[in-house]
Amino acid sequence: MKKYILHLVVVLVSSIHFFSLDAFGQQNEVESLGNVEGVVMPNYHYDYVPDFTYQEVSDRIQAMDLEMQFELNDRVFSFIQYFTVRNREYIKMVLARKEQYFPMYAETMQNHDMPSDIIYLSIVESGLDPKIRSKMGAVGLWQFMPATGREYGMQVTTDMDDRMDPEKSTVAAAKYLKSLYRMFGNWEVALAAYNCGPGNVRKAIRRSGGKTTFWGIYDHLPKETRSYVPQFQAMLYVLNHLEEHNLHLEEPSYPLEYESIHFNRAFHLDRMASLSGICLSDLEKLNPSIKNRKIPESHQAIALRIPKSKVFFVKENLAWISDSLGKSAPVLLASNPAPPSSTSSEATSSTSSRLAYKVKSGDALGKIATKHGVSISQLRSWNNLNSNLIKVGQILIIHTGQEQSTVTSSALALNEASAPTSKTYTVQPGDSLWIISKKHSLTIEQIKRLNNLNSTNIKPGQRLIIG
Predict the structure, then answer these.
(1) What is the DSSP string of 86-141?
(2) Which of 125, 188, 346, 416 is catalytic?
């Protein structure tokens, strides 16, 4: 359709010379198209690049409500031209990622009494890629080197790297930038020091004869740093004047809502994904500090970020999931060999496994019991149920054999005795979790976790897993 309209324009319009920008921002004369005086070529192309002048940009900057000094000059203007004309795709990429981080950036800067304009610095540092790594070894949205990261409270080990954590690294960046501002008393100079280090900035100040502004020490700074601050200022301008440069956000991505949950054990993220039904890529995205998809023993106390949509399920089944994370099989959580005294036929049927079954719509306890060749009373006992009521999404533990459906009632009885892999205790009158914990050398929290208890309330006759 666009080609058809443009064809009509070519037929109607003549003897007017137009200029267009090529891929490198150079002006090329377009051949004469007709001789109809006063006709203006319409713009039908989505990626039309509007013309602009130095004065127009200067006027727009003067009208901006900025918290930091912004001096427009030829160097800054050249970067504005670069991002709005020659590298528009980079701006579009940044816009697609912007909503994932900018709200959190703004809140963090406000909490640390920082200029809100600082949030644009992360674009220059990383292009809003939390896992990007420089040739020098700087990592993350704010490009921290290992030593500086550790200095500002981030773990940098072979197992964990908090420099890739958006929230932790943003807090560290706010603190570091604030310390640099206190050191030099000028935000542009503080940004320069963030890029090349305070030592190089002090050297540039000495060589300039004691000047204390960025443009005063510009000629004495490392080459990369001379471009660094102008790029930041260009980005600050461009993202506040997208409409004037026909830059549009097409498909934004938004942050995943989450809650942090402690499991207090070492485990692999793919194991968590298989147990909970959480997309593995979502777990990795929410927990970028975790390397090799593994929470090691040395960091087992950290809280794992869980997508908000899965929090209820995980909390409802926290004891079972936490207990299962340490086991290798995805569904069969444990197995028991047949008792030595069994006959050969009984030995086959009594080889039992601990199966996690997720209740589906239309399920009833009796239906599940029949399906797995066990009794309703066994299901209730294994899952500490006080009635036959179950709900969709609930996880039931079933101790079942490989050929359970064909076993005799005597074999079922044998399975009932031999299948459970966990040790249980029946609550007695006068018992409390504290008394039970002392009897069995456990902590109250361990008992609560094993039995998915939300409180310390227990009652006589209740069966608790204690090992």
Answers:
(1) I-HHHHHHHHHHHHHHHHHHHHHHHHTT--GGGGGHHHHHHTT-TT-B-TTS-BTT
(2) 125
C-alpha to C-alpha distance for 287 and 292, rounded to whole angstroms = 11
Rounded-to-integer distance, Cα 26 and Cα 22, Å = 5
Cα torsion 443, 448, 450, 451: sign = positive
* Domains, the chain, ordered by start: 2-45 (no CATH), 88-245 (1.10.530.10), 258-324 (no CATH), 332-418 (3.10.350.10), 424-465 (3.10.350.10)
pLDDT tens-place string over residues 239-279? 999 999 999 876 677 888 999 999 988 999 999 998 999 99
| Environment class of 37 (CB within 10 Å of its CB; exposed 0-12, middle 13-18, buried 19+) | exposed
- 143: helix, strand or coil: coil
Alpha-carbon distance of 283 to 322, in angstroms, equals 16
Do 47 and 88 contact (CB within 8 A), yes or no? yes
Which 3-state string (H, E, C) describes 307-356?
Answer: EHHHHHHHHHCHHHHHHHCCCCCCCEEEEECCCCCCCHHHHHHHCEEEEE
At 298-354, the pLDDT tens digits run: 888 899 999 999 999 999 898 888 888 876 543 333 333 333 333 333 333 333 467
Is residue 71 annotated as a catalytic residue, yes or no?
no
> Per this entry, what is the length of the chain?
467
